[in-house]
Amino acid sequence: MPFATDLERKLAAGIESGLLRHLHAVLVGQHGRIVLERYDRGPDEAWGAPLGEIDFGPDTLHDLRSVTKSIVGLLYGIALDRGLVPPPEAPLFAQFPDYPDLAGDPARAGIRVEHALSMTLGLEWDEFTRPYTDPANSEIAMENAPDRYRFILERPITGAPGARWTYSGGAVALMGALIARGSGRKIEEFAREALFKPLGIADFTWSAGRDGIASAASGLRLTARDLMKIGALLLDGGLWQGNRVVSEDWIEQSFRPRIETGDGWHYGRLWFLDEAPIGGVAHRWIGGLGNGGQRLWLQPETGIAAVIFSGSYNVPDSWVTPMRVWREIVLANFSG
């Protein structure tokens, strides 16, 4: 395929020139067909634990980091379709009656499930200005807290719910708790039955904290091909090989802009949203983004999906390489 060969050549040139660094895997597909698949070798880690030098391949599990958040959003939609979790308009704190002092706080009564899904809780959370190596980073502090859910729910109020976007792994941890409570299963067990098994995903791990609770914010590990399956599911409106896995309405609602992130992008229900051109025409894209350069990029109107795994964990400019791959290698070489 000349087109695929051209993509491969340009990606290889970027890597060899040093412009594209620390890449572990790159997959590109359109309308369900893989047009580029490349794996490399490099140092890796699993949720912060060093793994040494890894020869990556189709069967290699890789940290998704915060792409996990977007997968949890998809799982919430599946649970909602089954009537297992409260709808987005439901009061959030009422779902946690085991914290009566917080559930009964009038100042928190206006916070809805939707505000967790869009990261607009109006509660203090600092996950952007501090690296994940800093114990004061709110996600790390949550993992180290005696009770992760109380830690999240009792954060000081900083503004009205829905008014301002604040990146929060805590918001997603609450969604994971609602899925687990509603389904009666750990989130990894629900994911296996409700999402992974229908897609033929057999191999995955989900890192858990010291309390044994899987991290809904960052703990999932999948292969690049299996993450691409999830991308194909989303691009096909929730269908996999003709079978309904999640409602099309949930996907549409998840991909609808809810709030500006402050850097020109928008946020839906646990997905980043923006536009990028193909052939001079702007098309929206949807992204699941994770620490170190992990990406699931989707462009629904053109049927394009890309998975990127990288090893630039906790590096401030880790966003540069995956963005260049997406814009300069993928989108720049498609005609739509």
Automatic annotation (TrEMBL):
<dbReference type="InterPro" id="IPR001466">
    <property type="entry name" value="Beta-lactam-related"/>
</dbReference>
<dbReference type="InterPro" id="IPR050789">
    <property type="entry name" value="Diverse_Enzym_Activities"/>
</dbReference>
<dbReference type="Pfam" id="PF00144">
    <property type="entry name" value="Beta-lactamase"/>
</dbReference>
<keyword id="KW-0378">Hydrolase</keyword>
<protein>
    <submittedName>
        <fullName>Serine hydrolase domain-containing protein</fullName>
        <ecNumber>3.1.1.103</ecNumber>
    </submittedName>
</protein>
<dbReference type="GO" id="GO:0016787">
    <property type="term" value="F:hydrolase activity"/>
</dbReference>
<feature type="domain" description="Beta-lactamase-related">
    <location>
        <begin position="25"/>
        <end position="310"/>
    </location>
</feature>
<dbReference type="InterPro" id="IPR012338">
    <property type="entry name" value="Beta-lactam/transpept-like"/>
</dbReference>
